[in-house]
Design brief:
The structure is a single chain. By secondary structure, this protein is an alpha+beta fold. The protein has 5 domains: 226 residues, Tetratricopeptide repeat domain (Serine Threonine Protein Phosphatase 5, Tetratricopeptide repeat, Alpha Horseshoe); 99 residues, Tetratricopeptide repeat domain (Serine Threonine Protein Phosphatase 5, Tetratricopeptide repeat, Alpha Horseshoe), CATH 1.25.40; 31 residues; 29 residues; 185 residues, Nucleotide cyclase, GGDEF domain (Alpha-Beta Plaits, 2-Layer Sandwich). Strands 1, 2, 3, 4, 5, 6, 7 and 8 form an 8-stranded mixed β-sheet that branches. The radius of gyration is 31 Å and the shape is globular. The termini are far apart.
């Protein structure tokens, strides 16, 4: 059976075996016309560069990566001369993809990072999602799944902020594929289901078919054959709706094999024969070979050795003609079993030897892949070491410059000390510098946690950190759009400022870290940057106080005849990654599924209430009265257990 490993973004060349295209990428490209456009100096630079780009990407990238890379290099040089940064980044992306297709993953990664740096400087987030996805794909090829998931998660976060739902579906699928390949069926199920939910909302039927097929494979892995078959028949219905005979052949083969697993050999034969018929209609030699091998397996189970051998031999012949090693291995394995059961030892031995040869060939390829992965790691570490050495040189030069400046400063200060008449001026200046330093430190602490600010001042950078467990809080104003329509913009900003100032005071009192505000939403977290055991209780106490403060604040506005709003608060507990993002106007931020679920807790809550997830409830159950709401559907998350916090059980004694 075949897993659908898909990518929706046309600029990204997936490392996955793409089973389905949502757009017609096979259309013929008129490379001559595109080249003529590029050569026409009377046209604008953008038009010429786009023509060169299309020629490299659509005309050559998959069939002649070397030539595509050369064209992309020409584009890069031209764009560099003209100062066209976005075109430079897109050219670097193409060069990276070409190197990826050629198997030079180290060079592909270098180009991707160069493109990413430009996209980040331009704050072009769509470009960032494409290059981050491509970097994740390189790590997948290297079997470095943790790093791949990190990059896919970064991609997903940006896509969520952009509202790029189709891109989110693609990334969720990519993460699901990794978990599936690692045998983590529950996680694969979660991400495939989230992907399917988005595709259903978009009514993207081709994507839905692929996700249903992936879910069928997960169910099959879990031994839930009825659920798997149900999904497969949903896929078949969609395939038939599009009259896609290639896809129908693949799906019917999957259905037939599940019937075989269930021991229903009659139905297995019917569906595999149908698969073979569709494959023959469209000339799909690979799927014909697969169908014949599957028929051989079913005939073997029903002791129809003659038909099993006939189908198996024809399946093997086609597999050898197409040169697909795994198909040859599968056909040889099936024939070995049939010949052995039929007592034809010599032929069984022949097929066994072929099976072993094909199996070893696959293993050798996997070993080569491991060697390539180690070489990739070595090359990347070497490049990083060279970059670090270059940084050391820069630091050494900077230290020398500072030393010289210090000598000059010391001489200057010595002169000042000798000039007693200017001593008072010097002291005043010193106090002013001290105040400026205090002011700058205060500003830094306004945007970063103290531990992070101290690390940044000491080293010039701050490392990202993984936290096993924190509690994340989101708030949002209900009816904000109507509220803002009734007021002047300045008044709206003043209200939000007053409310967020109240929230700032509350989270400070409870030892909770404010993360950021996003429009009219407020985000905070407990348990970081210094981990503690009370983060969930701290955050819930802060949330209750926030709701009480907002009720009082907006009741006061109502008494004055002014517009008012309600507030939803949601909390979730789990692991996150935290660190500083950006180079200009940087900020401390947190990422991970825990954050996404916290946002869903907020959106699934009610005004005036504090809505918490099951994981948070388990941490606060002894401290608060909670009302179980049951499992409630949250967008892109499925059914989640939720609780309203209704009262405090224990109030800490005052000293």
């Amino acid at each position: 059976m075949q897993l659908y490993k898909i990518t929706f973004q046309p600029l990204v060349v997936a490392v996955f075996a793409i089973a389905f295209f949502w757009t017609d990428l096979s259309a013929q490209v008129d490379t001559d016309s595109l080249w003529n456009v590029w050569q026409n100096s009377e046209m604008t630079d953008s038009v010429r560069l786009n023509a060169l780009h299309d020629m490299a990407r659509d005309g050559l990238l998959s069939v002649d990566p070397d030539s595509a890379a050369q064209l992309a290099e020409i584009k890069f040089q031209f764009a560099d001369e003209k100062g066209m940064e976005l075109q430079k980044a897109r050219a670097l992306m193409l060069i990276g993809i070409a190197n990826f297709n050629l198997g030079d993953y180290t060079e592909a990664m270098v180009k991707y990072y160069e493109a990413l740096e430009i996209f980040e400087e331009l704050e072009y987030e769509h470009g960032m999602t494409r290059v981050l996805n491509n970097i994740g794909n390189v790590y997948v090829v290297q079997a470095q799944y943790d790093q791949a998931i990190d990059y896919f998660t970064r991609t997903l976060r940006i896509q969520e902020s952009l509202g790029d739902e189709l891109g989110m579906a693609s990334t969720l699928n990519n993460i699901g594929v990794i978990y599936f390949d690692q045998g983590d069926d529950p996680q694969a199920m979660e991400f495939f289901s989230r992907c399917l939910g988005i595709l259903e909302d978009l009514e993207h039927k081709r994507g839905m078919a692929s996700m249903l097929a992936n879910l069928a494979l997960v169910y099959e892995n879990m031994g839930k054959l009825e659920e798997a078959q149900e999904k497969n028949f949903e896929v078949l219905r969609l395939d038939e709706e599009f009259n896609d005979q290639h896809a129908m052949a693949l799906t019917l083969n999957n259905i037939g094999l599940i019937y075989k697993l269930k021991g229903d050999y009659d139905n297995a034969l019917v569906h595999i024969e149908r698969a073979k018929g569709y494959a023959e209609d469209v000339g799909d030699q690979k799927e014909i070979s697969t169908s014949l091998t599957n028929l051989s397996r079913v005939y073997s189970k029903t002791q129809q050795h003659g038909l099993a051998i006939e189908s198996g031999r024809e399946g093997l012949r086609l597999a050898e003609a197409t040169g697909v090693i795994r198909d040859i291995r599968n056909a040889a394995e099936s024939l070995y079993t049939v010949y052995r059961e039929a007592g034809r030892s010599a032929e069984a031995l022949e097929m066994y030897e072929l099976y072993i040869a094909m199996r070893d060939s696959i293993l050798n390829r996997e070993n080569q892949r491991e060697v390539m992965r180690q070489h990739f790691n070595y090359e990347m570490e070497k490049r990083e070491a060279l970059a670090e050495a270059e940084q050391d040189k820069i630091r050494a030069v900077n230290r020398e410059q500072i030393r010289r400046k210090n000598l000059q400063l010391n001489a200057f200060i010595g002169g000042l000390l000798l000039m007693s008449l200017l001593a008072g001026v010097f002291l005043v200046q010193r106090r002013r510098i001290g105040k400026e330093k205090e002011r700058s430190d205060g500003l830094l602490l306004n945007i970063l946690p103290k531990e992070t600010a101290d690390e940044l001042k000491a080293h010039g950078y701050a490392e990202s950190r993984y936290f096993d467990e924190v509690s994340v809080l989101f708030t949002d104003f209900v009816g904000f759009t109507k509220f803002s329509e009734k007021m002047e913009p300045g008044e709206v900003v003043e209200v939000i400022h007053e409310c967020f100032s109240i929230f700032d005071d509350i989270v400070n009192r409870h030892g909770v870290e404010k993360i950021k505000t996003i429009g009219d939403a407020y985000m905070a977290a407990g348990g970081l940057p210094s981990p503690n055991e009370t983060h969930a209780v701290d955050v819930v106490r802060a949330a209750i106080e926030m709701q009480e403060a907002m009720v009082q604040y907006f009741e006061g506005r109502k008494d004055k005849g002014l517009p008012a709003m309600g507030v939803r608060v949601g909390i979730n507990t789990g692991p996150v990654v935290a660190g500083i993002v950006g180079k200009n106007k940087f900020q401390y931020d947190i990422w991970g599924d825990t954050v996404n679920t916290a946002a869903r807790m907020e959106s699934s809550g009610k005004p005036g209430m504090v809505n918490v997830s099951e994981s948070t409830y388990q941490k606060i159950n002894g401290e608060f009265e909670c009302e179980y709401r049951g499992k409630i559907h949250a967008k892109n998350k499925g059914e989640i257990g939720m609780y309203f916090v209704s009262a405090v059980k224990h109030t800490p004694e005052l000293a």
